[in-house]
Amino acid sequence: MQLQCSEPCEASNQELREDRVCANCGAPLELVPERPSLSAEALRALWSGRRSSIEPADRSGVWRFRELLPAITERLADIVTIGEGNTPVLRGMATAKYAGVADLSIKHLGWNPTGSFKDTGMTVAVTRAAARGAKVVACASTGNTAASMAAYAARAGMKARVFLPRAVAAAKVAQAEAYGAELVRVGDNFDDALTEMLEGADPTTYVLNSLNPFRVAGQKTFIIELLEQLGWQVPDVIALPGGNLGNLAACGAALDDAMALGLITRRPRLAVIQAEGANPFARMWKSGAERLTPVSNPTTIASAIRIGAPVSWRNAARALRATGGTAIDVNDEAIAEARRVIGRDGIGCELGSAAALAGVKVLRDSGWLSEQERVICLLTGHLLKEPGTGDGSGNHAESHAHAGARC
């Protein structure tokens, strides 16, 4: 298991700490892929066969694919799992009509144990933290990472410390508190919280934001699971919301694995959708710039993607280039409308997730995708993450506290 900087720099091993950015250039670290020698047919059979097992690691929709995960522990009993993954793919009806495509399906990652896709990465990262003997784990969060980290830390017997912006959906705060996390309110947005957390984290604290490559490694599995659910028939487009962009980086890494192992013979195009008021990556992509310029004061009703300085933009850009994908933004009105349409299919999601469907409609209207292409929308968070935003305003049920106050 080897670490490397995600940028071509001359960092020494002493400058590479897996839960921090590179001390030399400030880029996130990544794990050098260690892929199994098994054939594609053998891997498919192995992963399918584990479904009949009663072993918790086999029943996990993440650890079932452990041949694609870093070798953290040889003992299955040491894996920290609460039954993550195994989220459904649902055929779109009202959503397909709204987007203007004939074949649209939704993979709802919000049906994970704590209500978001974060669980697929957190199970791996917390297992890694436990293997290293960590006693305290920390993250900055707009809510979903906080809830996920707190739950998995509780299972592992660790102390969880969460740094939150002043305004966060109350349901997400309540989740983290219910799992026993210590909450620290700092700054006006996620980027402020992340900066404060990284500056204040002592060497014994293990950081669990998406800059941690073990998080990204775990999140790869939702794409492998999706491909399996589709009978290994590759869709034309996978659309997903973009905040800190660890999910897009994970999609790219998963497709690299699937291609290298012969599980698929072509890549789907990836489309990441940001909110108009929190769109640094979409701006970079549209302009052709080589580096991302942060948005200093991100604003959107979609709190899960209200991020102005996404840490995973480098690997996200690589994923788009490798798949012929794109990045766009949509306004808050489109996000709210898309969330209402998703509800008409009997599927609930938080506002940030709905950006994916809003983006598919824009891409269809622009001609980037055709009516006959097969589209998958990834929804990343459950409706009950934001129970007070049924009207799409995004202004209800947010919890406020003074900066620096400990809850």
List keywords for this structure.
six-stranded mixed β-sheet; Rossmann fold; alpha/beta; 14 helices; four-stranded parallel β-sheet; 407 residues
Fold and architecture overview:
This protein has 407 residues and is α/β, with parallel strands linked by helices. Among the domains are: 31 residues, no CATH class; 198 residues, 3-Layer(aba) Sandwich (Rossmann fold), CATH 3.40.50.1100. The chain contains 14 helices and 14 strands. The strands form four sheets. A six-stranded mixed β-sheet has the order 3-4-13-10-11-12. Strands 8-6-5-9 form a four-stranded parallel β-sheet. It has a two-stranded antiparallel sheet with strand order 1-2. The C terminus is likely disordered.
Most strands sheet: 6 strands, mixed
Strand content: 5-15%
> What is the radius of gyration computed over CA atoms, rounded to a whole number of angstroms?
19 Å
The CATH C-level name of the domain at 89-116 and 216-385 is Alpha Beta
The helix-and-strand class reads alpha/beta
Uncertain stretches: 400-407
**SSE order, one letter for each helix or strand:** EEHHEHEHEHEEHEHEHHEHEHHEHHEE
How many E strands?
14
> Overall mean pLDDT score?
91
Q: If you consult CATH, what is the topology of the domain at 89-116 and 216-385?
A: Rossmann fold
Helix content: 25-40%
Count helical runs. Answer: 14
What shape does the CA trace take?
A: globular
Which CATH-level-2 architecture of the domain at 89-116 and 216-385? 3-Layer(aba) Sandwich
